[in-house]
Amino acid sequence: FITIIRYVLPSEDHTIQKLLLLYLEIIDKTDAKGRLLPEMILICQNLRNNLQHPNEYIRGVTLRFLCRLNEVEIIEPLIPSVLSNLEHRHPFIRRNAILAVMSIYKLPQGEQLLADAPEMIEKVLTSEQDQSAKRNAFLMLFNCAQDRAINYLLTHVDRVPDWGELLQMVVLELVRKVCRTNKAEKGKYIKIIISLLNAPSA
What we know:
mainly alpha
């Protein structure tokens, strides 16, 4: 592991960095007592550097890697860097930053780590122009703050036909879930279903 830290960690090669993240995903990060290995502090610093890297690919794959991490001791120091990527100029970064926020928030301690996550993602959803990033933001609200997702949907009913197919599929899943849970609410969503049926196919 020390060899990896000395010779692989500093590499700027994209393929090497991607393989490194796969390696970090599968290795044991804790000792027999469940405590984080001291070497992981070095990894944490490397991940922070990657999240601030000038190359979009490095940032994106690192954000994707964080979606598969469960170790709060590694994730917690990285949260400010993750949040800063929500406003990155490149949509690829924003898409993955939203997914990383969702993954962190869904951890057992997630609500303590990111108490304002639903509110932040709702703001992102309101201003986001990229369809994939918008879909990810709506998906986060759907999974983590369903009331906010419903409120956003009902506030923007007239725009639903213009949303991309990816987002429309999440809307349909939300409508299906809400109507199954509360059948009395079905009437609210008839207009949305009709508008989707009448929407021009791509």
